[in-house]
Design brief:
The complex is a heterodimer of chains A (about 150) and B (about 350). In chain A, helix 2 crosses helix 3 and helix 3 packs parallel to helix 6. The radius of gyration of chain A is 23 Å and the shape is elongated. Chain A has about 150 residues and is mainly alpha-helical. Chain A has one domain. Chain B has about 350 residues and is an alpha/beta fold. Chain B starts with a strand and ends in an 11-residue tail after the last strand. Classes of the chains: A mainly alpha (about 150), B alpha/beta (about 350). Chains A and B meet through helix 1, helix 4, helix 5 and helix 6 of A and helix 6 and helix 7 of B.
Chain lengths: ~150, ~350
């Protein structure tokens, strides 16, 4: 780098840090307490609902181990249904991680993308874009599971 | 026509011969609901996709503006249009329906400023008697292109803005009681903001520079302008803009509004305010032009602001380049306003 270019770069960096000192104090603080509260309450309620569904499956004759998978399927169904009926996004706006962390977030990501691209056709729209958000969850989930499986086998 | 610095001054200032604003349902519920020429209750405006709905709003705004101006599309010399969708499809598809020689423009949310600036130049130079300008945006169309699918559940940060749904059209011509006195063409600024959920902070330096240049070039002082309106800086960007101009010795805080802050009521849950091409266009056309016609405002500086990034540039880690254009509008009601400088 020439001396001139170096000088220009330093000046640009100075301008950026000067601007930081101007806009920094003007930035709103995220309402942390409120967000944590709603995430805890809504996330907790979803888990209570999941437990209730699981207990129902056990009462219907499933073993506690067997009841896990149908419970996840039921919660995914409910998350997708709420997305399709159009109120999941309103709930998630308030609940944040409370709806994103349980499997409801995953269900929403797939259903929302599938719905959004319906106009672009079934194959390239719904099929092609369905996993545009959730795809990375699946990819890294499978990779992580593979590594954990390897470690477990050793 | 005269040019000083970045600013163009017009000898026979072109006028707003007709203008119309069409809005979506959420905008209709905002403070300017009654001022819009048409409010759609359906977010798709009766079409089967958001994009087609946006086009319909463009066409309706154009038809209403031409009707008010007393011209038909065959009499209009040029069409200038721009929007937020990839390859500015709303503009191109609308130009297909109108029989007018067409320029497609992209200035992101500042497109309204770019349209008025270039349209005014065409009329003032004598190349055109009437120029039709159309711009607008659609919340859901912009969401799915720039951010996430519309039904995807995310928590919006307090600095996020809500892309407004609507379209605004102006006919620039030789008649009318609002005139375009001067235009300041902005430079692109980028002070390192990378967060697309904080566009107000990204765009504030561009707005501040264009406003400062306008006052430098025109020799006006802020107190000689009744109102300064930026396009869509939102609550956060507005504060930053005031702070930036204060450092340069310009105090505009007593006569400064932001269209994005004004568009919705605070209970409409839009965090820092509105954004989008529609924002500055429909607030200026429906609200500010009305106040100019009423004589309650005599001279206003409208400064549409735009962020010139894309989802690709964001994913590749680039910061957001931004622009602002300034348009000085005046009313002829009660005699033309003069200032010695030009």
């Amino acid at each position: 780098m020439t001396r001139h270019a170096e000088l220009e770069k330093r000046q640009a960096e100075e301008k950026i840090s000067e601007y930081k000192s101007i806009y920094g104090p003007k930035q709103p603080k995220p309402p942390l307490a409120k967000n944590l509260f709603y995430a805890f309450v809504v996330g907790g309620l979803i888990c209570v609902l999941g437990q209730f569904i699981k207990n129902t499956f056990i009462r219907l004759g499933f073993t506690p181990e067997q009841a896990g998978n149908p419970t996840v399927a039921a919660i995914i169904f409910l998350g997708s249904l709420a997305t399709g009926l159009g109120f999941f996004d309103n709930l998630a706006r308030v609940a944040g991680a409370g709806t994103a962390v349980p499997v409801t977030g995953f269900a929403n990501a797939i259903t929302a993308a599938a719905m959004e691209f319906r106009r672009e056709g079934l194959v390239l729209g719904v099929g092609g874009k369905m996993f545009s958000l959730a795809g990375s969850v699946i990819v890294f989930g499978v990779v992580a599971a593979f590594i954990v499986g390897l470690l477990y086998a050793l | 026509m005269k040019k000083r610095g970045q600013t163009l001054f017009f000898d026979k200032p072109p006028r707003i011969q007709g203008a119309a604003a069409v809005a979506g349902p959420k905008e209709g519920l905002g403070p300017f609901g009654p001022d819009f020429d048409k409010v759609h209750q359906d977010v798709r405006a009766g079409e089967n996709s958001f994009e087609r709905g946006e086009r319909r709003m463009f066409l309706e705004a154009a038809a209403l503006a031409m009707q008010k101006a007393g011209v038909t599309d065959r009499e209009v010399d040029f069409l200038l249009a721009g929007d937020l969708l990839n390859q500015i499809i709303s503009s191109g598809f609308v130009a297909r329906e109108l029989s007018i020689p067409y320029f497609g423009l992209y200035g992101a949310c500042s497109t309204f400023g770019e349209i008025v600036a270039l349209g005014t130049v065409l009329v003032d130079a004598g190349f055109a008697d009437t120029v039709l300008g159309i711009t607008g945006s659609h919340n859901c169309g912009a969401e799915r292109q720039y951010r996430y699918p519309t039904e995807y559940g995310v928590q919006r940060p307090a600095t996020a803005q809500w892309t407004a749904t609507g379209a605004g059209a102006v006919v620039l011509g030789l008649e009318g009681d609002i005139l375009v006195r001067a235009v300041t063409v902005g430079k692109v600024h980028d002070l390192g903001i990378k967060n697309p959920f904080n566009m107000g902070t990204a765009m504030a330096p561009a707005a501040a520079d264009t406003i400062y240049s306008h006052f430098q070039d025109s020799g006006l002082e802020p107190k000689q302008v009744d109102l300064i309106a930026t396009g869509d800086l939102g609550t956060v960007g507005r504060e930053v803009n005031i702070a930036l101009l204060e450092r340069q010795g310009l105090d505009i805080s007593d006569r400064y509004i932001d269209c994005g802050v004004m568009m919705y009521y605070s209970h409409q849950q839009v965090e820092a305010g509105a954004s989008g091409c529609a924002c500055s266009a429909i607030v200026t056309i429906a609200h500010l032009f009305k106040r100019l016609r009423q004589g309650d405002l005599r001279r206003i500086l409208v400064v549409p602001t735009g962020a010139l990034h894309s989802p690709t540039s964001y994913l590749q880690g680039d910061s957001i380049p931004c622009i602002a254009q300034a348009i000085l509008f005046e009313t002829t009601k009660g005699g033309e306003t003069k200032w010695g400088h030009t």
